[in-house]
Amino acid sequence: MAAIAAIFDQLPAGSVIVLPDDGYQGVGGLAQAGASHGRWTVRRLTVTDTAGWVAACASADLIWLESMSNPLLAVPDLDIICAAPRKRGAILAVDNTFATPLNQRPLALGADLAMQSVTKFIGGHSDLLGGVVTAREPRLVAALRQARGLAGATPGTLETFLAVRGARTLALRLERAQRNAMQLAERLAQHPNVELTRYPGLPSHPTHEAARRLLDGFGTIICFDVRGTAAVADAVCGGLRLIQHATSLGAVESTIERRARVPGQEHLPPSLLRLSVGIEAVEDLWRDLDHALRDAAARG
Ligand SMILES: Cc1ncc(COP(=O)(O)O)c(C=O)c1O
Q: Which domains does the chain carry?
């Protein structure tokens, strides 16, 4: 989050920020806080409104996108948006946390900045907090480094050690977790107690074509709507034994959360569960999910 704040610090007073309508709520909160102090104005665009994003590039000062949106996993047409002419001095930033640098490299697509929450996939073991920003322009790197120093957000040696150690196994962890995610998504999509499964790797996903074009892998996050009420979805979370009920994601262990129960996320479908798939044996994960789904449905 400190990495994101350093990017927002770069904006001159009176800037225009364009954010996706679906995205990490921390960014929305940061943008709203600055707007309420008159630092900038915020506009929201649907992730898939490519023409809208192209137009925004010509007038906005910060264009913020996620390689796939959190939590609905919509994949923006980044190649087209990055190629659009930008207002002089504008920053096009991509939060690449969900894709990881192994599945997408926003700078190569033409973004000015890419950021990753190292807390998630790069660390991979839920034991550190950190973020990384990469930029093409040395001027921007220097400005971000200065903002980091002024805010005191310099990472400690233990966090840095854990991040580098995590990065060494990222490829292996991602490969395994992605394979698990694909299998679970296919099975969830057929499950009688699941209303809707969202995973960019499924042909039924609204941005499957963009995902195939722009990502080297479909990631490890699946969002699915449990058939029934929010209470039934809560019962699914409560009934899981192997999959942990937690907010964070991107770790070796699978985690799940009903997002609409989080303050500020009430606009999401009430029974939507965000599942971050880990590296456990896929049959163990499936047994856990299937049992919790059937049990919660039977209890009503
Ligand atoms: C897409 C995305 N970006 C950034 C962050 C911020 O991560 P951190 O926990 O490292 O502050 C999160 C946290 O959930 C996230 O989901």
A: 2-167 (3.40.640.10), 170-299 (3.90.1150.10)
